[in-house]
Structure formats: structure tokens, C-alpha cells
Description:
This protein is of the alpha/beta class. The chain is built from 19 helices and 17 strands.
Amino acid sequence: MSASLLLASNRGPVSFADDGSVRRGGGGLVSAISHADAPAGSVWVCAALSDADRRASRTTGGRLAEGLAPTGVRMLDIDPVTFDRAYNAVANSMLWFVSHLLYATPSSPAFGERSRREWEAYTEYDDAFAAALAEDAAPGAAVLVQDYHLSLTPRQLRQRRPDLRISHFSHTPWAPPEYFRLLPDVIAHDLLTGVLGADAVGFNSARWADAFARCCVDLLGATYDGGSVTHEGRVTRVDVHPLGVDGRELVARATEDDVTSKLPTIRELVGDRQLLLRIDRTELSKNIVRGLEAYRELLRRWPEHRERVVHLAFAYPSRHDLPEYREYTGAVQRVAREVNEEFATPGWVPVHLEVKDDYPRSLAAMRLADVLVVNPLRDGMNLVAKEGPVLSDNGVGLVLSREAGAADDLGADALLVNPYDVSQTAEAMHAALLMDRTERSARCERLATAATAFPPSKWLADQLACLAP
Length: 469
Ligand code: F6P
């Protein structure tokens, strides 16, 4: 195979169930690339994530049947122990925690011998991607490497194939140097030089791009001129490509039967009350617990909202192999229970927490919401914040964390909050619930315009333009 455009990400466009049936891969990255209209003949290289994926990968020699995804798919069958160390221990623990500033530093992290072993596995895993990409790329092909799982791949690929045009895009934030440097020196160095193996590096926000460049300057002694980083004679451009949503496609999806059939149940649940909605993976950075605490404070401080609002909180399972995530799910459930114990009255349940992933139901709820709460501690972008206003039937009010990349695009018309400030979040919920309908609709319209300004097709085209010879 010899492709002129290749994409690489840990999670691919499809996954397999135990009975061999195919499902669409989940998450923001996958949905962005799936909607980005990659040209025919492109190849998407991804990892087998489960035993069922591995079986499918083995029976097809890793090259999945045509037509399963918008591109050709090469699924890498990486040894499960190597994969577990690379994905769970390094990508989702070490790198995710660093980029989202999640460590409780008095006790963690502590990098010992085990971390070194895990790092070796991560290096091997990234190199498996580099080898596959090198094998499948036509001379001079463009290769778009995605995310923190594959930070070393650009450099490893360049060593194998110096003729290729390589980019790396981070869907997450990047940590500022004073936080990034808590990583062991060798790891910090490898990460930065790994990404700098690309010709162009992209981020969702100027804040993350700037943090990356400052890490290169402080930790590597590189130079940065505001547009590119130079290290050991190599120049890598640093760009901002904020990812948005394809409004027309999203609205069309939200009028399909599986979505509209969910509307009556949600309407019945809410009745003539206002609907306060949140939709997240149950992810530490999403800050669901403080969001529920803010709702509790809202009901305590402004009793007029009692029985006048229903909070639907969709918290879908994520990364359950990690103990921190299992504990966090427990904490979310506990606070939701406490709020209901304190305020429920006959005929009114203040919080409905749903943990079973149901995409059509999420779309239906976004159509009906009066207020959408998106309060992550830190987030590369956060597409829910963009999808909500686009899908809203009634003009939704948006309470948004200033620490989400989406705040750059939506900040003018959202109610911005410091995600650590529970009282301020409660005040923003209060203001959004009381906001005059005309103002809410006008803001929502402007939010939808901003949310659709950078659809995935533009996002992809801009990255390719940055790689143009
Ligand atoms: O935020 C970056 C991102 O890659 C998202 O696209 C995705 O939702 C998540 O991180 C990865 O999640 P997972 O570990 O489930 O693949």
C-alpha cells in the first residue's frame, strides 16, 4: 500500500464487539477525523484496543475491509502488555495527568523503576506506529499524527522516512514548563524532541501552543520566534487549529428517528421545569463532582429554583482500568445521591445521573436543554460546549469553564467560570436560569456561529496547508 495521506491515532474509527460486529470508535478525536472528509485512498493507522479488535486485526492481516470507515484502516495488533503500559500507565496516567494538571503533588507522582519500564513500552508502541506509517506512505506523503499517545512517533518516523511531511496535533492542553518539568528529565526531553520531529505542530488553543513552545525553550534550550521552534537546526512550525463542529451534519443527525424518539421521555421527565444539562465522559478533568456541588449550592442559596429545575447529568464510563477513574465514578454517584436526599420532594427528583452511554439520547437532551454546564478543570477544546448551542431548539445558555480551549471561541457569549470556584459556578447557573429568553437565544445564535466556524474539514485542510512543500 502506498498512500499520500495517512492519519495515526491510538483509537481508530471502528472497534469490534466480541461477536465480531463493528461499532464506530468514540471520542472527540475520532469524530473530528471521521467528519473531516479525508481524500479517497487515505489510510488511518490505529491500535487494536481489545481482544475482539486483536482478533479482527489478525484475521485481516491488520488491514480492515474497505468501507468500514471513511478511510482505509490499518489496525496494529500490539502486544497486550506493551499496549497496557503505553496506554494506561503512560498515556492516560502520566501524560494525561501532566497536560491537565491533575496530580495531587504532595503524594504523586513518584517516578521509579516501574515508570522507566512503562516508558520503554510507550517508546516501543509509538515506534510500532512509526514502522507501519513508514511502510504505507508514498514518497513525500503527508502524515498527520494525533495526540499524546503518539508523542514520539513524529521523530521515530522521520528517522525511518526523512522524505515524509509530518504533523502532530494535540487534542489536549499542554502543560506550562513549571509543571511539565515534574516529569523525569529524560522523559520530558524525549517527549519534546519526539513532537519536534514533526514539520508542523498543532494545538486547539494559543494557550496550549504557547505552553509547548515555552517548554521547548526552557527545557531544551530551543528558540521560539512566535511562529516556529528551532532546535538543533531543525525548524518546526507551531500553529493553532481550533476544532469546531459541522453544523449542518450535526443538526441532520439530531433529527434522525433514534434521536427524535428520545425527545418525549426527556420532555416528560422535565415537565414544565427548566433543564440543566451536562454531558461528559466520567473523566477526572471534566470536574463533574464540583459541577454537582455547584448545583447543590444553587438549590441552597436560591430556593426559588427548587422544583423549578431538573439537572440531567450524563456521565459516561471512561478508562475503567484505572483505579482513579473507578473512584471518581463513585464520587460522582455519591454527590448526586446526596443532592437528591437533601432536596427531593414528591414528584421532583433534582438530579438524574445517567451512566450508560447513549449518543442519540445525548443529542436529544442537547436539543431540549435550557442551560448547558461544561466546567472542566482543563480541556484541549471540549466539543460538547460547541455542539450544545448548535443543536439547541430553545436557545441554550452556556456555563463554561475558562480553562477549556472552547472558551477562546465561545467566551464572549458563554458565562465563563473558574472551574475550581464552586460558588461562582453556582452563580453562573443561577444567572443562566434567570436569563431573559430573548437574550439567551441571541447569545445562543452567536455561540452556534462561533462553534461552526472551524468545521473538521477546515481543521484538516488547514493542517495540510501547513505541511505544503
Ligand atoms: O481529548 C483528547 C482525546 O483523544 C479525545 O479525543 C478522546 O475523547 C480522549 O482523549 C481519548 O479517550 P480514550 O482514552 O477513550 O481513547
